[in-house]
Amino acid sequence: MPTVEDRRVLDVPLERAWKIAKNSHELLPQLMPEIFESIDLEEGDGGPGSVFVLTMGPAMPGGRGRVVRERVDVRDDDRHKLKHTTIEGGDPRYSSFTSTIKYESGPYRGSTIRTWTAKYTPAAGQSAPPPEDMKRLTEKITETIHNYAAENPDYCAY
């Protein structure tokens, strides 16, 4: 299964970065309404087996109101790892798409390394390119959330 990866060093301590990641569904529609009109927990408590419904904003392919459902496969507080699988409404170029975000201690005090990995299978009859657009979107999301965290030091602070 092909993969694409992005690694970033964040100027946020590990535990705070992890807490922000687990709460990003609440923050993203506020910070990026052009991309996420809403993100709602449809089923579960946010842990494995939960289903989130993402209603996309006008800047996304397919336009405002397109619905994507993602299942949480892993939410590991000890290993600081989230894994989601798109189960409905994803990019039609791929028959399967999973993304994993892992956080670990960074190279200097108060930093975190965020690694995003996507695994995908091109749809039948497609020679789908690697999902570089998803990688760019993930980079933008990470930058937006962590800029917000820098400007709002009490958000998700321990």
TrEMBL record:
Domain Bet v I/Major latex protein, chain residue ranges per copy: 15-148
GO cellular component, one term: cytoplasm
CDD domains: Bet_v1-like
Signal peptide: none
Coiled coil spans: none
Superkingdom field: Eukaryota
GO biological process, alphabetically ordered: abscisic acid-activated signaling pathway; defense response
GO molecular function terms attached to this record: abscisic acid binding; protein phosphatase inhibitor activity; signaling receptor activity
Family: Belongs to the BetVI family.
PANTHER family found in the cross-reference section: OS08G0374000 PROTEIN, OS08G0374000 PROTEIN-RELATED
Name the record gives this protein: Bet v I/Major latex protein domain-containing protein
Organism encoding this protein: Ceratodon purpureus
Lineage of the organism: Eukaryota, Viridiplantae, Streptophyta, Embryophyta, Bryophyta
